[in-house]
Amino acid sequence: MLFRARYASALLLTLLLPCFAACGDDTSDGTSSGATSGGTGGAGGAGGATSGAGGTPDAGPAYALTVQVFGPDGGDTQSYVIVTDDIDSDEALSLDDAIEVQGRALGVGLDGGGAVFVASDAAATVTRYDLQEDGSLEEGDTVSFQGKGLAKLGEYGTQFHFVSATKAYFFDGPTAQVVVWNPQEMTVTGDIPLEDLVIQDATLTYSSSSPLVQGGDVITFGGWRIGPEVPSVAAVVVVDSATDEATVVTDERCGYVRDGVEGPDGMIYVATEAYGAAVHRLNPDNAAAPCMLRFDPETRQFDPEFHVELSTLFEGDTAGSLFGGPDGKAFLRVLDESLFAIADDTHPRVLASAAAWRWASVTLGDTPTATVLDAAPGGGSVLSVALGDRTFLLEFEGQESTTLREIGEDGPGEAGVSAPGLTFSVAKIR
């Protein structure tokens, strides 16, 4: 069936926008729009806490959801910061009292730290908003990362990691460095070069899940794209938060290995993300077979004897996106091709975000096993947020809304709160 070009373009845009976050793509051209602050249009005291039905609690938890609302054809994006005290309700949040931010914004913060820090692709700045007693947010200082060579801040909220109230990291792909900054003083205090992550002509992106923390080590994962190809390189980045020294360890047995979880043996298991798996499914010459590798955090080396092709866990089916749940649980997504018709011109980003990937629980160890679950299928690329001791999946309904769904021992739980637009970041601020 043939579509007119304008309808086909609109359909492609709807499918691609959720995957831009989960696959590491960006709709902007990498230039600054001239904004001088990461947060604009938000007056002090705006953004009062609400569960959707009203109310401003004096105590209890408070969460900041930062949502992105796209204009016609995906342009003229505006973002909004909403504060709510209830993420378990299945109600829809309103933008009526939200703080408006220019561009595609992210809102992050130290868990329970009383503030949300807002950045966007409109400038290389972060603006602090402090939670008030009545549940509103008050705008504070802004810090610029431009002096470290950054033109904007975007992609994932998980690229931010808060070591403490006075120290935080931002893992930047385009400049291959970690920017060190002080969230309390709102100053940049240093940088950690990651030259070993530079691959000529390649786009570097980081994990869309929160970094792992072992002792004082902050651990994240990188992946690369070169046009339609995925280089066969996996990378683990370990930053010692006491010394700000980084170790980058690479492996060439498979690529786009942006996901990792800690196994019951203390080892870190990493695997190809769904986008890399989709590239291989559509053209095996463009990417190595999706695989699982094992990294020893003590020796800081990959296990040369451990290499599992993900398809062997599912009788040959395409799989990717390894991510964690409660109590050490681990999950993968496996493609059910009966739910999505693959054509000769199917784009890997579209395939990775198609609602055709089933949930599977994974037992990690010397010989991993996997069991497909009964949960409803969804997109293969996973965007999750850790809020306290709970982990939530951010589920997109096209570009119209986002629903928070808690990940339990058996996979996705009941749908929680939803917000209009696309939510790429959530922070527990109290």
UniProtKB/TrEMBL annotation:
Gly residues bias (residue ranges): 36-54
Region (Disordered): 30-54
Keyword Signal tagged: yes
Range of residues in the leader sequence: 1-21
The entry's keywords: Signal
Protein known as: Secreted protein
Provenance organism: Sorangium cellulosum (strain So ce56)
Upper lineage: Bacteria, Pseudomonadati, Myxococcota, Polyangia, Polyangiales
This protein's encoding gene: mxcI
